[in-house]
Write a structure and sequence with these properties.
Elements (H helix, E strand, L loop, with lengths): L14 H15 L6 E2 L12 E3 L8 E7 L9 H11 L6 E8 L5 H16 L4 E5 L1 H8 L3 H7 L10 H7 L5 E7 L5 H9 L3 E3 L21 E5 L8 H15 L8 E5 L4 H10 L8 E4 L4 H19 L5 E7 L10 E4 L12 H20 L6 E7 L2 H10 L6 E7 L8 E5 L12 E4 L7 E7 L5 H10 L6 E6 L1 E2 L2 E2 L5 H20 L4 E7 L2 H9 L6 E8 L2 E8 L1
Parallel strand pairs: 3-4, 4-5, 6-7, 6-8, 8-9, 9-10, 11-12, 11-13, 13-14, 17-18, 17-21, 21-22
Antiparallel strand pairs: 1-2, 2-3, 14-15, 16-18, 19-20, 22-23
């Protein structure tokens, strides 16, 4: 199955369309909706085709010059120099001139542009950067709307392009309808844990089949009956059935509708539903006697199939996993775990196994149904044990995973992308042994650190716990002995690979229990977690500043 980052997008053949695409990418990347093209074909453009004001540059402009090379030939030093010289006459002060070309990435051209950039900046002028076709398609991967606009054939089942364009950035969402009380917290929570957003049922009345482009666009309806059976009358149940029938008439015929009620009321409900000319084939009844996880899995299965299909069946699936109130967009699944997990609230091991693991299992099952080696892009905002568990769930044997990581001190492309199986940097992260392993030891403590050390907190934990490690070692994320402020994909992959190799080497020495303590970026923990499959028992710990507490064990 092709993915956004591996699909060989054909370069555009029309220079005007190429400029439009670069304008669209820049507008999103700079967070400036007023980004526009400069002049028109045939006019003197002073080395600039697209310009705008990146939101974090305090009114300073940035520009792009587009060079479509239909034969893929590289730009010459003269061509680059001419565009830079022309851009100096641009009427606004620039911080950067980007030269965008459909030519493939080329080391010689990169070095040439770097040299020109250094020369310009030494003279007090703007920085010069180059986007090759590889860079452009990597950026396209972050903006599904642009893929739908410029490469609609990318989507597997593109029936109605305008609908896909409207839905592509919206997470799967369901309307929660209940009577006479609100949707039970247990059902709402387990659905959120699986990535479904719950919409206010009062807003459903604003949409209909005729207004299919409204903001609601539900991917399913969940109707839960909460009144005790002993208090139920025909009139109450009829009113509940009427609400369901009303909402069914407002959504697409394929939209899944679930009715959750006591099994003893099923026959009575269906009789009343038929009196309202309700079609029993349009609803799926789930008994309240089922566990919340069983109920959620059935609902999630139906909603995912419908919602994923109507979004064109994209080959790459974006998910967010979070513990904060922020609601990310441009994702398919929004796993909202904030009711049970935050920086000040950590679940017990039992909670993790009973609530989080079933949710992750359900999500993995759905995603992997879409094809072998499914490509999954993860926006992870989690404490580290949970981040390790995400990688462990989507380990390298079952899925192709990429993670979004924050990039500091850079005004564009702020969120860089790390592909788990990307190229590894030629660098060695040598473990520092604080206690060498002995022949009879079966446990080891492994500390993973970046710019913050964990050792004092780990020492304190060891003293207060019953752990007697046979070995203690640290693996620091450093380059030439210095902590890394920014970590690019190649270093992230190299570090993850070598941590996995170190732990497997410990296993070969007879160590079956790894106590893993970490202070590293969460996306990096996801990559490492992917490499912990079949590595014995991995014991993880929450950092509850200034101490550690046990989280759970990966087996």
């Amino acid at each position: 199955m092709p993915t956004r980052l591996t699909t060989n997008y054909p370069s555009l053949t029309d220079a005007d369309e190429f400029e439009l695409m670069i304008r669209d990418i820049c507008a999103l990347e700079w967070n400036d909706p007023h980004t526009e093209r400069f002049g028109r074909t045939g006019q003197k453009q002073q080395g600039v085709d697209v310009y705008g004001k990146p939101i974090d540059l305090n009114g300073v402009y940035r520009a792009a010059q587009c060079k479509l090379r239909t034969k893929k030939e590289q730009l010459t030093e003269h061509e680059i120099g001419t565009e830079v010289s022309d851009a100096r006459r641009f009427p606004h002060k620039l911080d950067t001139l980007i030269i965008a070309t459909d030519a493939p990435r080329n080391t010689h051209t990169q070095i040439l542009v770097d040299q020109i950039s250094e020369r310009e900046m030494s003279r007090g002028n703007f920085r010069v950067a180059i986007w090759f076709w590889d860079n452009i398609t990597e950026r396209l991967a972050t903006y599904p709307k642009l893929i739908a606009r410029y490469y609609p054939d990318f989507y597997a089942s593109l029936t109605t392009l305008p609908i896909v364009e409207k839905l592509i950035d919206k997470p799967l969402q369901v309307v929660g309808l209940s009577a006479p009380l609100n949707l039970p917290l247990s059902i709402e929570e387990v659905l959120k844990f699986r990535g479904l957003r719950i919409l206010d049922p009062n807003r459903l009345g604003f949409i209909s089949k005729e207004t299919a482009f409204d903001d609601i666009l539900p991917d399913g309806i969940v109707c839960s009956y909460n009144l005790p059976v002993a208090e139920t009358t025909d009139s109450i149940l009829l009113k509940f059935a009427g609400k369901i029938q009303n909402h069914i008439q407002q959504v697409d015929n394929s939209c899944p509708v679930f009715v959750v009620l006591p099994s003893s009321l099923t026959t009575q409900f269906l009789q009343l539903f038929e009196k309202l000319d309700g079609d029993q084939k349009r609803i799926q009844i789930l008994a309240t006697e089922m566990s919340s996880n069983e109920t959620a899995d059935i609902i999630f299965d139906g909603v995912f199939y419908y919602g994923y299909t109507r979004r064109g069946g994209p080959a790459t699936i974006d998910i967010a996993i979070r513990t904060r109130e922020s609601r990310p967009n441009s994702i398919l699944l929004d796993l909202d775990w904030q009711t049970r997990l935050s920086t000040s609230r950590f679940p017990t091991s039992i909670e993790w196994e009973s609530s989080f693991v079933p949710a992750l299992t359900a999500v993995r099952s759905q995603l992997l149904k879409q094809g072998d080696r499914t490509k999954i892009q993860i926006n992870c905002q989690l404490p580290l044990p949970a981040a390790f568990a995400i990688g462990f769930t989507f380990n390298v044997r079952v899925a192709r995973v990429g993670v979004w990581a924050r990039k500091t001190e850079v005004s564009d492309f702020k969120h860089q992308f790390w592909l788990s199986d990307g190229n590894s940097a030629d660098v060695k992260f040598i473990p520092e042994w604080l206690k060498q392993s002995s022949d009879d030891s079966q446990s080891a403590i492994v500390e993973l650190t970046s710019y913050l050390t964990t050792h004092k907190a780990v020492e304190s934990f060891i003293k207060e716990s019953e752990i007697v490690p046979g070995a203690i070692l640290q693996v620091k994320l450093e380059k030439d002995g210095n902590p890394m402020a920014n970590i690019d994909e190649s270093f992230a992959v190299a570090y993850a690979n070598q941590v996995g190799q170190i732990i497997r080497h410990l296993n070969e020495q007879g160590i079956t229990d790894i106590h893993l303590f970490a202070r590293i970026p969460a996306p990096l923990a996801v990559l490492i977690g992917q490499r912990l499959f079949a590595c014995g028992r991995i014991h993880l710990y929450w950092f509850d500043n200034p101490v550690y507490r046990f989280a759970f064990t990966l087996i």
